[in-house]
# Entry
Amino acid sequence: MNLDYNKINKITINKPLKLDCGVILDKFDIAYETYGKLDESKSNAILVFHALSGDQFVTGINKVTGREGWWNYVVGPNLPIDTEKYFIICANVIGGCMGSSGPKEINPKTNKPYGLDFPVITIKDMVSAQVHLLDFLGVKKTLCVLGGSMGGMQALQFCSLFPDRTFSAVPIACAASHSAQNIAFNELARQAIMADPNWDSGNYFLNGKIPRNGLAVARMAGHISYLSEQGLQNKFGRKLQEGEGLNFSFDADFQVESYLKYQGYAFVDRFDANSYLYITRAMDYFDLYKLNDGNLSKAFKDTKVKFCIISFSTDWLYPTQESKKIVIALNSIGAQVSFVNIITNNGHDSFLVEEPEFFQTLKGFLDSTYEDFKSENSR
Amino acid sequence: MRILKVKIQDDVLAGLIEIKSRVLDVGCGDGNLLLYLKKNKRIDGRGLEINQKNVQECLGKGLAVIEGDAEKDLINYPNGSFDIAILNQAIQQFYEPRKVLNELLRIAHKAIITIPNFGYWKVRLNLLLTGTMPVTKTLPHSWYDTPNLHMSSIKDFYNLCNLDNIKVIKSISISSNKISDITSNNLEIKNLVSELGVFVVSK
# Structure
């Protein structure tokens, strides 16, 4: 695959960013995309946070890979997040590999990629970096911050850190902390990458060999966790590749095997293995309960943000119960919180696919919230 | 599941609610009452609704509504977090209506409960004449598919309030379009002529 990194928009923030790990980045880059136009009253800005394997190319064609944006079903003209109506901003997270500061970028001190010299980052660091992008774009307060999975975590963290910078938030298919099972899956992925001899303690960029196999296995493991048992069964069952019976070998006999392999190796072309380590670590460290002495409500004390929490019935990575805990925490402090659990077979990945009930919920919430925000701004 | 509710004029309920109250509407349906109260009484409203389609409609109206089951989820609401809780023609659908009633009065300082009155003369006559479970305008279901598990009369509700030391601050009889107050003096007759009872209660 030909990747064209020259087409990335980025800004360099010349202000120090103090990271949770104690390291201070003197300056840092944020790569971003915007869609639609900011209206005169600046009431229509929506900050989208991407998930683990996502990037800033939410919709349209990804300028780097040439493929479709990861949220093409949701963001676009006349879609739930309507680009004709809203001004949509999405940044590559720091630690990522689509142009924002991360392990793949050049360390000015050595003139080589950072690799594992890049500091370990957290969800809080990602969000703190992105606020500078809002300043740069002249957006004092967004209409909404939203995202699914790790994007939802960023939305929660954003509301906790910067409650005055958004009017509303839609955390989707997420949790306020990573469970043991979540951490276990991420560790499996990291071990797969690190077990690949090409990984070379993270220095693979020096000799041009890429830990393809390790990263592909990591992605496969992740992919299984994004789908529901029933969804996988419905799609593949025990269907065979050639339809001619078993081959009595270890090649891909079953369709589900070749599907996973395809997903795994397609990912390798566009994603950096070290980035995968950094981002999964950031997710594992995420714990809004612990940050608030075990009381999640404290994270949102006195919040004026309007929340709409959305979960999916067959999501076993971030189960509905985790979303309900967030709802209860917000409700108990009188926050404006709505909640919907979408019944679906599509598992955790439901937010990325055609899911009419999800779309309707999101659109209804955004459009009515926009009216409220406009009238607040015109006062 | 919710039955089609008998339309009580929004202004009857609105008349019982003070301006800028914090209101929880349990079983808020499509949110029209909350919206009416938001516009006319400037309330800070929240809804709890079991039907997802209804919740989606509420969100489209800019209301803060949680998809959930009152019988399971009210426990998560802190004590005294609302000025008033509304339960409009739903109490008879719970497995444990007495528990729900007391939960509402833990969460809110006051509650407005409306009930379809099983003591209404047409209901009584229907049972007397046909010998089968009454099917009327306010109670449109057959016994085998009704969501109404615990029907009561206005008098039954009064008795439960006495039993649980719940104060009835105000009660209103609604029949056709006639609205009148229920008092301890006219309870027997109102129990006979009311289609619906509206109660404002507190502990």
Observations:
- The beta strands of chain B are 22-26, 44-49, 65-67, 82-88, 108-116, 167-175, 178-181, 196-202.
- Residues 21 and 43 of chain B are 5 Å apart (CA to CA).
- The first strand of chain B starts at residue 22 and ends at 26.
